[in-house]
Amino acid sequence: MRTQVGIVGAGPAGLMLAHLLHLQGIESVVLEARSRDYIEGRVRAGVLEQTTVDLMVQAGVGERLQRQGLVHRGIYLSFSGRRHHIDMTELTGGRSLTVYAQHEVIKDLVQARLDAGGPILFDVEDVSIHEIDGARPKIRFRHQGQPQELECDFLGGCDGYHGICRTAVPEKALTAYERHYPFGWLGILAEAAPSSEELVYTYHERGFALFSMRSPMVTRLYLQCAPDEDLAGWSDDRIWEEMMTRCTTRDGWAPKQGPVIQRGVTDMRSFVIESMQYGRLFLAGDAAHIVPPTGAKGLNLAVADVAVLARAMAEFYRTGRRDLLDRYSETCLRRVWKVQRFSWWMTSMLHRFTSDNDFDQRRQIAELDYLTGSRAAMTSLAENYVGLPLD
Q1: Contact 293, 266 (CB under 8 A)
Q2: What is the pLDDT of residues 114-162, one digit of tens each?
Q3: Which is catalytic among the residues 289, 297, 328, 351?
Q4: What is the reported pTM?
Q5: 72 is catalytic
Q6: Residue 338 known to be catalytic
Q7: What's the pLDDT band for 214 if we cut at 50, 70, 90?
Q8: Residue 221 belongs to a domain with what CATH number?
Q9: Three-class DSSP category at 294
Q10: In Å, how far are 190, 209, 229 from 232, measured between CA atoms?
């Protein structure tokens, strides 16, 4: 088999890259280890930056997003028993955020790929990449029991943190930067109509809590917990008791309760590798970086990466110029580190750390008090939350 760009991974990064390349007349083949049902049903992130929404609409895959997505003007920060609204739309000249689940984005991109007749192979096995520093890199894999080889001009490594692409780069060519946080998130999906039209981030002496939603009838909620929390110890009653304790405000607001239909613990860490390219291999999304979910940036960073990469590849095939390709990592990492800074800041401001003392608690409350009372501080938060420029 032969194609221009071989893409490993059918997550948001891989599928969006394939679609953007298709719009430029560039051929690609997408390989995915999981089934279509799995990737379209796996519930993940659900908050899209304005930057991501704009790109999806411009790329022709935003029709369902515009029809079903829940547009939010801002968020609430809750502390000391009171909610404070941050009107991001007003602070950023009309920009907003949209709640639209990642698996719905995946569905839209898979359908666009199939409608365009683009090759996407599910349930591939034994994937490996070869000759990534040569002129014709190759992907070897098994599909439907048959060994195959795909020769490409370039490789898109979009297969996540645990994928094979990053590990194919010589260790000496990569520098990894990492931070682990001493807590996790206990996340639940509940059959309950949202009790707020916008997200509520809560700082509480017992730990962080987040109220979000996935649809008009499903609420998404998170509680700060131990990183190795045993789910068996969290009955529905205990979850709701803790949620009410942390989230209920003095005016009586609290999340509506309902049956818990899904639960799990999310690890909290930051990770970046430099460089994001080696030879003909370009890493994107979780293969190159991980952010704590506090700032809702994982999916959005992945989409930003491949928007930069697709533009660089289009320039190469149109003119033969390699300068944009050569600067891919440099361009992406400027944004990646700004997003890492924002995600770290949100995380450190809103969570209780095991090393905290009374001073730290009062400092956090003072920071929240300043933030919610300063237009300049709120504008900084809003600009980062709705999405920084791609480069």
Answers
A1: yes
A2: 999 999 999 999 999 999 999 999 999 999 999 999 999 999 999 999 9
A3: 297
A4: 0.95
A5: yes
A6: no
A7: confident
A8: 3.30.9.10
A9: helix
A10: 17, 20, 9
